[in-house]
Batch of 2 targets.
Target 1
Amino acid sequence: MSKPKILVARAVFPEVIARLEQHFEVEANQADDSWPKAELIARLQGKDGAFTTGGDRIDAEVLAACPQLKICANMAVGYNNFDLDAMTAAGVLATNAPDVLTETTADFGFALLMATARRITESEHYLRAGRWTKWSYDMFAGSDIHGSTLGVLGMGRIGQGIAKRGAHGFGMKVIYHNRSRLDAALEAECKASYVSKEELLKTADHVVLVLPYSPASHHTIGAAELALMKPSATLVNIARGGIVDDAALAAALRDKRIAAAGLDVFEGEPMVHPDLLAVSNVVLTPHIASASLPTRLAMASLAAANLIAFFNDKRPLTPLNTAVLAIK
Ligand code: 8YV
């Protein structure tokens, strides 16, 4: 029996490709050039499955042009690159890569918060530019993390990881807002209190965004929300571009309506809004929150395991649209 054919849409660990090759006929984009939609469609012709990353959009147009496709396994926990309804309608299974990146991403959220509040990159640029000539009492004086109030917007697994780090590691008071409230045991574990979004924005010293992107969460933080925040507050976005109105944020940072921001994700990335590049009170990183080597390997391995399990026995590990499995 011939092996199923799969496309690996972006470069990935050679050992993961080797594992996939044991089960599939693999076409792999090891050159790592991002394919435009037309090329993705062309490469997907005759493929039974795809290994995708967050930048590979699978929508109704792609699905209509690739009738043989049965599964797309995302090497990401977020799956806003999938039109899930269209995939379900087309009978194409979607899987994501949850859990394996939770702690690494929460670590990074905290690192970005620390760098932002304590002005680490801004001060490093100053030093590298040869501008450090003397000590001053208020030179790069930022805001404290310990003992401050941490507001977590989006309290899924990564949000909980950030809350625990704040509460247990830094003695922070943790407040959170989420579509649904956590049960009492989980709230106690995270030492977190549920508040409205408005109260969170008004009272937190540091706001960390960890909510999934959907049309409903588009511009969750815009000019009106930024206006609610304390002038001394920091904002960290490790969720998705589009959750923050980047132009409104750049204006708020420029006018010092909030103190600073740390951003790992951007609207239209890898493009970054030029107004953000022009302000100094923002820490900018290129979507690397999950980027520790062991975690990236675990994410890729989980995506591969989903493909293998699906074609073996139709029991993928982390399916998103299980309705598809019922009709297969
Ligand atoms: C990925 C992410 O690096 O998992 C996610 O949702 O945003 C990141 O961990 C990115 O999406 C590449 O697939």
Note: The mean pLDDT is 97.
Target 2
Amino acid sequence: MMKYENIDINQLVKEVQNKLAEVTLKTQAKDLEKDESYTKDEIDKRKDSGIFNDPSEAVEAAYIAQKQLFDMSLMDRKRITDSIKEHLLKYVHELSQLVVDETGMGNKRDKVIKNTVAIEKTPSTEDLRAGVFTGDDGLTLLELSPFGVIGAITPSTNPTETAICNSIGMVAAGNSVVFSPHPGAYRSTNRAVELISQAVTMAGGPKNLVVTVDNPSMKKSQVIMSHEKINVLCATGGPGLVKAVLSSGKKAIGAGAGNPPVLVDATADIEKAAKDIVDGASFDNNLPCIAEKEAFVVDSVFDYLVFNMVANGAYHIKDQDTIKKLEKILITEKGQANKDYIGKDAKVILRDIGIQVDDDIRLVIMETNFEHPFVQVELMMPVLPLVRVKDAWEGMDLAIKAEHGLRHTAMCHSKDIDVLTEMGRRIQTTIYVKNGPSYAGIGIGGEGYTTYTIAGPTGEGLTSASTFTRKRRCALVGGFTIR
Ligand code: NAD
């Protein structure tokens, strides 16, 4: 019989909690030890390539590597990131093919472009610009210091691009990185990390500066997210992931979902707008979070825009029954995008509703109303609904609504400065492209550096090396001003 006298209830609760934590940890450790796909020798060999089965081990290794990097110079960091760029460039075709094979999404041609710009246009240490204040009271420097170890969670839609781009920026800033790759894209992500790891050591950098986790799972991701030696989390993915990192209690950089609208008004260069929209909305089969997902087109130019989109590789579905058929296969009963069709070729999507087309068809278009799920849901398929509007102002109102306040990306084709300005001012997206395809916003055929982590929800915007730093002030009182 249990005695109730002299029991300290707080003590009892603590003991039970400790016991439960012990059991949970033991179970987790057991799960992590169990790796059916590799022998022990193979697991050890993979560790040398920066690929760890146990996420805690990965974090511990990256922690040591970051200390070593911190003792190296800025020139060393530049040499390491240059080496990553040079080495990875040789593997762009292999990586792009691997991603297509593993995920079954997107196309190799565009993934080659995406990986190449990730390598060539992600800034390194040149992005780390210090600040300065001078005056009667002396000199104060604003220095950019590393956070330490960054836990980076990556998506299936741009897996190798994100790993490359995050690695260059985070290492240039003086951090080490532990990747938690998407379970559906981890083989290709980890191949990229293996190559990055090779490049780091080839340049004399620390072993395990950039590491990743094998056979990823939600549990392993949680271990990284809650590990005491992870200083910052950087999440690139959908709303569930961003919510999870924001609830982690750690500093989080969250790059989330978008539903980018494009507005075309009567003053636009319609032939160019049509080509830009087809190019942007079909790029990598619409997988990029920045790609045009729905269009608002002024009535007077609607038909001419459609005519030119068809001339540029769009397939126009005109009858309602066919649109209904398409809706049936692309939208689930829960009103979400059907994963089976995310990132698939336009030809495959059309084939499944009984329409045979040639390979040069890159995009499927149709006129819908504003409420249609193709407008409201982030499809990530080469399927673009067009909504007819009476003028630019009505189109702008609807475009803002369709963006759902995600503040991600928007496009506008117009020659009216008031329309261009007002749309940018009101929609408040991180990326706003005027008179160009969406990908111009990440430096593909547009000015500016490239990133695949666009942190709208947490406000950092287009991330780069300086995003992954702590801003520190260093004040020298009463000296060093020579004015
Ligand atoms: P996803 O959200 O399914 O997965 C992203 C990553 O998060 C994966 O590694 C996954 O395992 C992990 N994850 C998901 N939920 C989690 C949770 N609760 N806890 C811990 N880890 C979790 O994304 P996806 O389907 O690969 O990518 C597509 C989505 O990502 C789209 O919504 C797209 O708009 C968005 N995206 C945004 C950006 C950006 O820069 N803003 C870039 C790429 C993709």
Note: Residues 40 and 413 are 57 Å apart (CA to CA).
